[in-house]
Design brief:
450 residues; alpha+beta; Rossmann fold; Dna Ligase, domain 1; D-amino Acid Aminotransferase, Chain A, domain 1; eight-stranded antiparallel β-sheet; five-stranded parallel β-sheet; 15 helices; 20 strands
Length: 450
């Protein structure tokens, strides 16, 4: 392939560790970068390392990282020919993707149509049913009122989960274990959905008691070529927020893995999807049920990179530039084991956010240890954004070696001046259930509440 850059210049419409991750990929590909930042992020590492930087507004996200006009103006001013949205913020906003295209620039992600299709959970579920992907039994569409909610619950069977059709992160989700709880769960789910997403529409599905959260990483080009890069197990969660992720899942065998992968590949190819994406499933008693699709790079993508040797951000940029996928499914070999520990600036027991100055910083090293973080000594973590400040990503030849290396790396990691959940991860690395791989999506909540 030619050494000529795929894009001359990419504007990174994000912040923190993911902005730095994208910047590094661009630099290795010979692509110039533009960092955008709020006033609170002027000293962030990606701003310091980018070829150019533009302040797009004050600290609040709605006035900076969610300000579409400011971001597009920054792209125009700097002459960027593509925009990478990273994760969160505008990464799954179809309006923004469409505006980028209308400005004559490339949105490094799927088409606006696919973002819209997968962004609405009811539409996404209907689409997957048409594509013969198994889904959790549930309502055919939105739940209209309390009477409809009760009738649907009785048809599905208790317990049931009432969920917002928009958004995620555990907001607008309520469980009803019997008839008497349906009305209250319906009201609360709608109220939370309205408050968080501006849309009070909810739907209902069967609530699985001990499922695992399994997600499949996909990569596709605009020519109909689609592959998967194996699965990740993201079952260790608190309030539906992932804490600890593994690749591959300790719960699957090769037969199940290949069966799920072939279903996913066929669905993505038929959709005509372009870019990276992740299909998320609940897995219980040998059955998979589709939950949702994330139409962007995932926070936990590095563990897939370690076990496949594929740089997902570079591949994402290539297919966005119109290149044909050079990797085939036969090229994908899952080797070894990888674990990611999300390091949040939060107290390890109360989970209260802990912004402030990092007074001392020492990252662990050694074979098989990767740190994705924008932290440095003297950096001040602002209080305005997500509390994720670092990702410890560890590789081992097998799961046992990987967990031992996680334990060793956590003991080396020093972040002083703020609270972090490193002590929680240190406990997880010693837990018998974690060591044996016997856990589900409710395991951590029960452990913390016991």
């Amino acid at each position: 392939m030619s050494n000529k850059p795929l894009f001359e210049k990419i504007l990174i419409a994000n912040r923190g560790e993911i902005a730095l991750r994208i910047l590094r990929a661009c630099r290795e590909m010979g692509i110039k970068t533009v960092a955008v930042h709020s006033t609170a992020d002027a000293d962030s590492m990606h701003v310091r390392l980018a070829d150019e930087s533009v302040c797009i507004g004050p600290a609040p996200s709605r006035e900076s990282y969610l300000n579409m006009a400011a971001i597009l103006s920054a792209a125009d001013i700097t002459g960027a020919d593509a925009i990478h949205p990273g994760v969160g913020f505008l990464s799954e906003n179809a309006t923004f993707a469409r505006m980028v295209e209308e400005h004559g620039k490339v949105f490094i992600g799927p088409t606006p149509e696919h973002i819209e299709m997968m962004g609405d959970k009811i539409t996404a579920k209907k689409t997957m049913i048409e594509l013969k992907v198994p889904v959790v039994p549930g309502s055919e569409g939105a739940i209209k009122d309390e009477a409809h909610a009760l009738a649907t619950a009785e048809q599905i069977g208790f317990p049931v989960l009432i969920k917002a059709t928009s958004g995620g992160g555990g907001k607008g989700m309520k469980v009803a274990y019997n008839k008497s709880e349906v009305s209250q769960a319906f009201k609360l789910a709608r109220s939370e959905a309205k408050a968080n997403f501006g849309n009070d529409e909810v739907y209902m599905e069967r609530y699985l008691s001990r499922p695992r959260h399994i997600e499949v990483q996909v990569l596709a080009d605009q020519y109909g070529n689609a592959i998967n890069l194996g699965e990740r197990d993201c079952s260790i969660q608190r309030r539906h927020q992932k804490i600890w992720e593994e690749a591959p899942s300790p719960a699957l065998n090769n037969e199940i893995r290949e069966k799920l992968g072939s279903i996913v590949n066929e669905a993505i190819s038929k959709m005509g999807y372009r870019g990276v994406g992740t299909l998320e499933f609940l897995y219980e008693n040998g059955e998979f049920f589709f939950m949702e699709m994330n139409t962007r790079i995932q926070v936990e993508h590095p563990i897939t990179e370690l076990v496949t040797g594929i740089d997902l951000v570079k591949e994402q940029i290539k297919v966005a530039a119109g290149q044909k996928l050079e990797i085939t499914q036969q090229d994908i070999k899952i080797t070894g084991h990888a674990i990611e520990c999300r390091i949040n600036a939060e107290h390890a027991e109360s989970f209260i956010p802990s912004p402030g100055e990092v007074t001392r910083y020492h990252a662990p090293g050694g074979w098989g240890v990767r740190i994705d973080s924008h932290l440095y000594q003297g950096y001040r973590i602002p209080p305005h954004y997500d509390s994720l400040v670092a990702k410890l990503i560890v590789y081992g030849h097998d799961r046992s070696e990987c967990i031992n290396r996680v334990d060793r790396a956590l003991k080396e990691y020093v972040i002083d001046g703020i609270d972090t959940i490193i002590p929680l991860h240190q406990r997880l690395a010693q837990e018998p259930d974690i060591l044996s791989g016997d856990y589900d999506i409710h395991w951590l909540e029960k452990k913390l509440n016991s």
